[in-house]
Specification:
Helix 2 crosses helix 13 and helix 9 crosses helix 13 (341-360). It is globular, with a radius of gyration of 24 Å. 39% of the residues are buried. The strands form 4 sheets. A 4-stranded mixed sheet has the order 1-2-12-9. The chain has a 3-stranded antiparallel sheet with strand order 3-11-10, with no helix packed on it. Strands 4-8-7 form a 3-stranded antiparallel sheet, with helices on one face. It has 2 domains: 70-76 and 414-488, Beta-clip-like (Beta Complex), CATH 2.170.270; 79-410, no CATH class. It contains 17 helices and 12 strands. The longest helix is centred in the middle third of the chain and has 27 residues, at 242-268. Helices cover 44% and strands 10% of the residues. It has helices spanning 6-10, 12-19, 26-42, 103-115, 138-147, 162-169, 201-215, 226-238, 242-268, 280-291, 298-301, 313-335, 341-360, 370-379, 383-400, 466-474, 483-488, and strands at 48-53, 57-62, 71-75, 79-82, 187-188, 197-198, 364-367, 408-413, 421-422, 428-430, 441-445, 454-457. It binds zinc ion (2 copies). One zinc ion binds next to loops. The site of one zinc ion (ZN) has 8 residues, from loops. Keywords: Metal-binding, Zinc, Zinc-finger. This is Histone-lysine N-methyltransferase ATXR2.
């Protein structure tokens, strides 16, 4: 039986209009083109263009020739978040995702948090402490932790004495050659929470203005209820951290809407025709950067985890849906203002839907760790220097075990990358080069690309068999007709 959410019923018209692809009406289509052109010029990636392509909607096309391995474009994320479990291993800027502090702080903090027990997250599967409280949500939970499985893979490690950890944290202990890996110093959240850290004042301010002022749990938070906010965050951490990303998308839209409205009002002051209440057209405009992504309802498109039988699919999707509404309810108390409420409510439904896009488009946020580079550097030193350095560094490496190389991991929405279509024989890939040390997406050519050609990436492992590929791509809602698939089709 299909459950109908009361919010769905109340706002069905708004939801339909918000879910309608922007290209349906001609004038919106022009605006969409304009939006992408602005985005491309802002990102200075003049080598590409976003064009409508009949079958798949949008696509990214080369405006110039690219050589093999050449950078095609870099894409700044619109919203992104580090996975909560990854926060123990990697201290990064909450806005640009660069590693911050120092090599010593990165290592010391990790041990410190692990001894506090924060590191014993249920993600590594040895604990059963979470099963009681989140029984109903286990499906969603498992689904995420499967993807986050790389972190906290605790292998056999040798623990460090507390003293050694403290001296790393407080800066008394300097590891040999760590000055070769300087990191920006840590800037605290201007709102006073202890969850957001930054690489610079600029990042701190940009984050505050675009998302964080509504989602900060500190003293200066502009949220309506810090208690509700804390509950929301706890629920997301226990169930699915994609809700944190959805909250960021909603917060981004509310703040953009307020800015639009303020400038609109100041323009109209002279004529004294002040608009009261919510202006849906301004709200739609504020929502556009996010709505332009691919849309399917999250609970319809989230892929069925392997451990769930196909016959339980309905129950599974129902639970996911329940989870999303619980989350939304908590968020509503935390950040909605009375004035925006009716429209924001339907908008939030869409934010929850839009997170389907985050899951689907596989837009992973990955930033390589300087801690890994550091230990590789030590390993590469000439024999005598290496021996000398290892006297100090080896105990730390032994204590870290395989985890020394854990990178920053999260999920993000990249507006240009998300326009790229799939091919099983792609001409480009998302690839971080040595110099790419922040949360931006980088697209690199796999072979020469000619001007006018569509730039494609593979959403899946393209070495799988034809049947396996089509099955995975069915989750994205299409059947692949790339040259490889046409060739292999039985
Ligand atoms: Zn930063
Ligand atoms: Zn804060």
């Amino acid at each position: 039986m299909e459950l109908i959410c009361p919010i769905d019923q109340r706002c069905s018209d708004q939801i339909t209009s918000l879910l309608r692809p922007p290209s349906v009406r001609f004038c919106t289509f022009i605006k969409t083109q304009e939006y992408f052109e602005q985005l491309i010029s802002k990102r200075r990636c003049q080598g590409i263009k976003v064009k409508q392509n009949g079958e798949f909607g949008k696509g990214v096309f080369a405006e110039t020739d690219f050589e093999e391995e050449e950078l095609v474009f870099k894409d700044q994320m619109l919203v992104g978040a580090q996975h909560p479990s990854n926060k123990i291993d990697c201290l990064v800027c909450s806005y640009c995702f660069k590693f911050i502090g120092s090599i010593e702080q990165q290592i010391g903090r990790r041990f410190y948090l692990k001894t506090l027990g924060i590191g014993i997250s249920s993600h590594n599967g040895c604990e059963s402490n979470s099963s009681d409280e989140v029984e109903d949500n286990e499906f969603a939970y498992n689904h995420r932790s499967e993807q986050n499985g790389a972190s906290s893979s605790s292998s056999s490690t040798i623990p460090l004495p507390t003293m050694a950890v403290e001296s790393l944290m407080n800066g008394e202990m300097a590891l040999p050659y760590s000055n070769k890996f300087p990191l920006p110093s840590i800037i605290l959240c201007p709102g006073g929470c202890e969850e957001a850290f930054y690489c610079s004042k600029l990042c701190a301010e940009a984050d505050w203005d675009s998302f964080h002022c509504l989602l900060c749990t500190g003293e200066k938070s502009e949220s309506c209820s810090r208690d509700a906010l804390l509950k929301f965050i706890q629920h997301a951490n226990e169930t699915n951290d994609i809700f944190l990303l959805a909250a960021k998308a909603i917060s981004f839209t509310i703040l953009r809407y307020r800015k639009f409205k303020a400038s609109h009002l100041s323009k109209q002051e002279n004529t004294a025709s002040i608009i009261l209440g919510t202006d849906p057209s301004l709200l739609l405009e504020a929502w556009k950067p996010i709505s332009i992504g691919h849309k399917r309802r999250w609970w319809d498109c989230i892929s069925l985890p392997d451990d769930i039988d196909a016959s339980d699919e309905g129950t599974f999707r129902g639970q996911i849906r329940e989870l999303a509404f619980t989350s939304l309810q908590l968020l509503k108390e935390a950040i909605f203002d009375k004035e925006c409420e009716p429209c924001i409510l339907s908008l939030s439904i869409n934010a929850i839907n839009i997170i389907g896009m985050f899951e689907l488009n596989n837009l992973d946020l990955v930033v390589a760790s300087p801690v890994e580079d550091y230990f590789l550097y030590i390993d590469d030193l000439p024999h005598s220097e290496k021996k000398e350095a290892e006297k100090i560094t080896q105990p730390y490496l032994d204590a870290l075990g395989e985890d020394y190389s854990i990178c920053c991991q999260g999920t993000a929405f990249f507006p240009l990358q998300s326009c790229m279509n799939h091919s099983c024989c792609p001409n480009a890939k998302a690839f971080k080069r040595e110099e790419d040390r922040d949360g931006q997406a980088t697209i690199v050519a796999l072979r020469p690309i000619c001007k006018g050609e569509e730039v494609t990436i593979s959403y899946i492992d393209e070495d799988l068999s034809f049947e396996e590929r089509q099955a995975l791509l069915a989750d994205y809602g299409f059947r692949c007709r790339c040259p490889k698939c046409l060739d292999e089709e039985p």
